[in-house]
Amino acid sequence: MTVTRLVDQDRPAIAFTVDGAEIVAKQGDTLLTAMLAGGLTHVRTSEFGDGGRAGFCWMGACQDCWVLVEGSGIRRSCTTLAEPGMRVIRR
Amino acid sequence: MKTVVVVGAGPAGIRAVEQLVRAGLRPIWIEESPDGGGRITQRPPAGFKRDAASLYGADSGRAKRLHATLDAMKPRTDWRPDTLVWNIRPEARTLQTLTGGSQQGEIAYDALILCTGAVDRVVPMPGWTMPGVTTLGGAQVALKAQGVGIGMSPVLVGSGPLLILTALQYIKAGAKPALVLDTTPFLQKAWETSGLLWNAPTFLRGVLMDLRLRLSGVPYAEDATPIAIEGDTAVTALRWRDSGWREHVTPCDAVALGWGLKPESQLADLAGVPFDYDTKQQNWVPRRDAAGRTPVPGVFLAGDGAGIGGAEVAELAGARAALALLADAHLPSDAALTNHLDGRLRTEARFRAALDRAFPYPAKLAAKMADEVSVCRCEVISAGELRAAAAAEAPEMNRAKAFSRVGMGRCQGRLCGPPAAAVLADALGVKVDEVGRLRGQPPVKPIPVQ
């Protein structure tokens, strides 16, 4: 997966953590965009032993991009905006 | 008429609300995303700076008008964004909602317009669950709403207008596709040309887009067949066969898949609306008349969730459904506009029929997928396991679901529904509509349990 920032990236930087490690993202990024453009290869691990997953539909339908956001529970990373100081845990 | 609820703030929902407000109503307006606008004309979050022309191209005028109406209507309705309707109780006429991912709610309604949209239709293949593989719609949303590409050198696979449009958008953004693979033969597309003239401007746009892709230098294979997405933990290549049955391996860093759309019709199902199989569209579609009335009193449908028609048709159908609701409630409604919309919708239906014939879902490709392919990506259930369920006498989809768990996962059959039906029908030697469809179940999307 090489999610790459291509256009419209002149936005303020924000920082949050994933599994304790800092990710620098941009205001307006969804968690999915922020994590994948920030260099992570996956956002969750399949419960059925076939490896990492990194979302699929990007529009809230497939449910394959769930992450745990401290304080707000399980969220779809494709429809949740990244916010400064968020603490995200991959499962 | 006491409480009217409109679910969805895409093109259909926006135009429905506009007509209700015009008639003096103040509907409750529910949208699952933080903002409305739909998918084709999705707005990026605050902070993005591209103007409408660079975001929506030829659709920019329509997008601007739609967004202006969306913003004008919000204060004139009970606007509830970030709210999922996860269940409908038709006898009690109540909706169960979840706001902000945690706050439960219940809404009593007298009438309901469901404008729930659609999702890409895919064909599972080896490697399709790997990071780096998305739907075509997903590849487009990434670029439009986030300014990112799914890769710098993606392969786009599928058929239909979205395939070409996405390819051109990626070229423009500087991520030139390594290959555009269209499963439909050129001649099949050309054959349907006369029917496509029912909407000459859109047809012409399509032809010009097709030409631009052909002149772009991006490899464009038609009548081709994807075999497998290769890679270990990340996408490295697509293996495919051309029309002459020669095998190729095209290196790439991402793959997007999409063969038209499938209605997001789970709420219509829970509302008690019966479904029929549309053989042209190759989709199960909730029953409604041309105005959007369903057999369930007080329940109306519009937009792609009521059968795929595209964003332009969704606007017409949204307004039309609201006018039907008003007329049925003996409220003043615009008769001239009603006649105009009926005429436009009839013409557009002919265009859509030709489009469906030109870009069919490759049901055979899905039906013949190898035993080891995960037909269900949520629970990692293989086509072989589904075929075993067929052998164990599962004559239809819900029985096969109980036996194999296909469709029981987190997406609740949104993605595996059409390909699983193709596999099951083929295994049983019956037509695809004979195996039925996965019934909608509440909650229509996962919700937290306290």
Secondary-structure blueprint:
The complex is a heterodimer of chains A (91) and B (450).
Chain A lengths: L3 E2 L7 E6 L2 E6 L4 H7 L6 E2 L6 E2 L12 E4 L3 E4 L10 E3 L2
Parallel strand pairs in A: 2-8
Antiparallel strand pairs in A: 2-3, 4-5, 6-7, 6-8
Chain B lengths: L3 E4 L3 H12 L5 E3 L21 H5 L3 H14 L4 E3 L2 E7 L4 E6 L3 E6 L2 E4 L3 E3 L12 E3 H11 L1 E2 L4 E6 L1 H13 L5 E4 L3 H6 L1 H4 L3 H16 L4 E3 L2 E7 L3 E7 L5 E5 L2 E6 L1 E3 L2 H5 L4 E4 L4 E4 L12 E3 L9 H18 L6 H24 L4 H5 L6 E3 L4 E2 H9 L5 H8 L12 H12 L22
Helix pairs in contact in B: 1-3, 1-10, 4-5, 5-8, 10-11, 13-14, 13-15
Structure, described:
The complex is a heterodimer of chains A (91) and B (450). Helices cover 8% and strands 32% of the residues of chain A. Chain A is globular. In chain A, the strands form two sheets. In chain A, strands 3-2-8-6-7 form a five-stranded mixed β-sheet, with helices on one face. Chain A has a two-stranded antiparallel ribbon with strand order 4-5. Chain A has 91 residues and is mainly beta. The two termini of chain A are 18 Å apart. In chain A, β4 and β5 form a beta hairpin. The longest helix of chain A is centred in the middle third of the chain and has 7 residues. Chain A has a single domain, classed as Ubiquitin-like (UB roll). Chain B has 450 residues and is of the alpha/beta class. Chain B folds into three domains: 210 residues, 3-Layer(bba) Sandwich (FAD/NAD(P)-binding domain); 138 residues, FAD/NAD(P)-binding domain (3-Layer(bba) Sandwich); 73 residues, Arc Repressor Mutant, subunit A (Orthogonal Bundle), CATH 1.10.10.1100. In chain B, 36% of the residues lie in helices and 22% in strands. Chain B is built from 15 helices and 23 strands. Chain B has a five-stranded parallel β-sheet with strand order 3-2-1-7-21, covered by helices on one side. In chain B, strands 9-17-11-12-13 form a five-stranded parallel β-sheet. In chain B, strands 4-5-6 form a three-stranded antiparallel β-sheet, with no helix packed on it. In chain B, a hairpin with a 4-residue loop joins β4 and β5. In chain B, α10 packs antiparallel against α11. Chains A and B meet through β1, α1, β5 and β7 of A and β9, α4 and β10 of B.
